[in-house]
Specification:
The model has no long low-confidence stretch (mean pLDDT 91). Helix 4 packs antiparallel against helix 6. By secondary structure, the protein is α/β, with parallel strands linked by helices. The protein starts with a strand and ends with a strand. A hairpin with a 7-residue loop joins strand 7 and strand 8.
Length: 247
């Protein structure tokens, strides 16, 4: 299971946002991974060290999130970090989007986007049309497009290093939770996203996904998605470089 430990004092209300996000991902992924020892501490599943602390004020760096220690062999996460700037957290809470940001960034700790290239699942990196090549996600993309000829999944081809090639492409997937932007109001976790975790090596419950369909051009416009490059919070998130435990 996912365990969240807070390295700085955090209010009970904010703690609950993290624990609810962990519970949501635990319904989707089997995180009961083999126990490992990191710095003398036994970890059963995945340990996330979380903090909300002053970094550089509003509209600066949002924070950092990602895996920090990977298991030998599978290279699935054993440990990760989630840090958010206090000022940005207050603004996200006012916008009623903090819970979705935490849910989104926790996915990166679990490997979404952050472990794709490492696993050899990115095609066309650095080009205009990078794609995620996992077989499970590709199958779900075919189902979404209702086209047997559809292959690898389009991923973000714009944004900073925390966004490009680490998310689904927003101009196609709209309000899906794991695009690089917070679009729409519902932000579902699709079967596509769940299947991408299976491609990384997790056991998943595909039926735990939310209802989702590809948006039309009109629906994208109503979400405010009319161009590929926009100012976004999630571009400002740093990604740690993980280390792999010795066998």
């Amino acid at each position: 299971m996912i365990t969240v430990e807070f390295t700085e004092p955090v209010s009970a209300e904010r703690q609950s946002v993290f624990t609810q996000a962990a519970a949501r991902w635990d319904t989707i992924l089997d995180t009961s991974l083999e126990p490992v020892t990191v710095d003398g501490q036994q970890i059963d599943g995945i340990l996330i060290e979380a903090a909300i602390l002053p970094i550089d004020g509003a509209a600066g760096v949002l924070g950092q999130a990602g895996p920090t220690v990977l298991r030998a062999g599978s290279e699935l996460p054993a440990k990760g970090i989630m840090q958010f700037d206090t000022a940005d957290t207050e603004r996200l809470e006012q916008d009623a989007s903090f819970a979705d940001v935490v849910l989104h960034e926790m996915a990166h700790v679990l490997g979404f986007g952050t472990l794709w290239a490492r696993a050899g699942l990115v095609q066309g990196s650095g080009g205009a049309n990078p794609r995620f090549t996992g077989t499970g996600a590709s199958r779900e993309y075919q189902a979404l497009t209702d086209s047997a000829g559809t292959s690898a999944v389009p991923i973000a081809n714009t944004g900073g290093p925390g966004t490009r090639e680490g998310h689904w492409r927003e101009l196609i997937f709209g309000d899906e939770l794991l695009t690089g932007f917070l679009s729409g109001a519902q932000r579902p976790i699709s079967r596509l996203s769940v299947a991408s975790f299976a491609d990384l090596g997790y056991s998943v419950d595909i039926t735990a996904a939310d209802n989702y369909a590809l948006p039309s051009f009109r629906e994208l416009a109503e979400m405010g998605i009319t161009e590929a490059v926009r100012i976004c919070d999630l571009c400002r998130m740093g990604r740690p470089e993980p280390v792999v435990l010795a066998p």
